[in-house]
Specification:
By secondary structure, the protein is of the alpha/beta class. It is built from ten helices and eight strands. Helix 5 packs across helix 6 and helix 9 runs parallel beside helix 10. The longest helix has 24 residues. It is globular, with a radius of gyration of 17 Å.
Length: about 300
């Protein structure tokens, strides 16, 4: 098995900034310390090729990102101040998504300890997302003929509006997003399948909704699943508004991964959101996802 990380690029943020950038290193260290992943199985995410990014994003927007020409309003919408390290980090995260998808097709499972940037649209970024890793990976996979059909299972607590805007309507991509109905973004773009959950949804109701709607993904007969396994449905998440426990999240992951493996569908994991206070709770939930994957895939 091969997994990827882009945490060699540290994003400089002002004191008190709300984005928990240190969670990525904390997760890598925990996965190794707990014996969930071997250190030599976690590789540096390669930098994405510009042509791959361009399949999903507007050329003028790409130039503004790479050249440092995003205006103040665009940076506020993203929620991160521009820096060269930010550009390098984003480019590596996009390349890591492609590398993880390719590795998943080879080994059955892969993932990146970053990514899930599902709020990035073709010509703007939002919600800490600059470019859209799953859109870039999906379009690369289809263009190169690595797979005929790709499905996205997006279980971040926030709707994947960027995934929907870029990919919904593509005949060879199916986008499924299950999220809090009153959470960000407030202007939604319809996915192929959206499931909205009320504030305070707990484990049992969440898992029942997932079990009811997951078969639609498999009816599409994908050759690869890109799984956005955000842990912000956790009750302790300060941006989540749902009420899942660690056990509920683990059962969510087990359901998705077991169903995919039983059908022989490779899975590439994206990290997604996690904003608990303290952030170590999100790191624990992320690590639990990988522990479930290790158990299901027996690696």
């Amino acid at each position: 098995m091969r997994f990827f990380t882009s945490d060699r690029f540290v994003i400089p943020l002002p004191d008190g900034h709300s984005f928990p950038g240190r969670k990525y290193v904390l997760l890598r260290e925990r996965l190794i310390r707990d014996g969930i992943l071997a250190a030599d199985s976690i590789l540096p995410s390669p930098l994405a090729e510009a042509d791959d990014i361009a399949r999903a994003h507007d050329a003028d927007y790409m130039a503004a990102v790479h050249g440092g020409h995003l205006d103040a309003q665009a940076q506020r919408r993203i929620g991160l101040p521009w820096s060269r390290n930010l550009v390098d980090r984003v480019t590596a995260t996009m390349g890591g998504a492609v590398a993880a998808a390719e590795a998943a097709l080879e080994f059955g499972l892969s993932g990146q300890l970053a990514g899930g940037t599902h709020h990035a649209h073709r010509d703007f970024g939002a919600g800490y997302c600059i470019f859209n890793d799953f859109a870039i990976a999906a379009l690369k996979i289809l263009a190169e003929g690595w797979a005929r059909r790709v499905a996205i299972i997006d279980l971040d607590v926030h709707q994947g509006d960027g995934n929907a805007a870029i990919l919904t309507g593509h005949p060879d991509v199916f986008v499924f997003s299950m999220q809090g109905e009153k959470n960000f973004p407030h202007h939604r773009v319809a996915s192929d399948l959206d499931v909205d959950l009320p504030d305070g949804t707990e484990d049992a109701a969440y898992l029942a909704a997932l079990a009811d709607h997951l078969p639609a993904v498999f009816d599409f007969r994908p050759d690869l699943v890109l799984y956005q396994a955000g842990v912000d449905p956790l009750a302790e998440d300060r941006l989540g508004r749902l009420a899942l426990t660690f056990d509920g999240l683990a059962k969510r992951d087990r359901l998705v991964l077991t169903e995919c493996r039983s059908r022989g569908i490779p899975v590439s994991l994206g990290l997604g959101g996690g904003y608990a206070n303290p952030i170590e709770l999100s790191v624990q939930a992320y690590a639990n996802t990988y522990a479930v994957a290790k158990d299901v895939y027996r690696f």
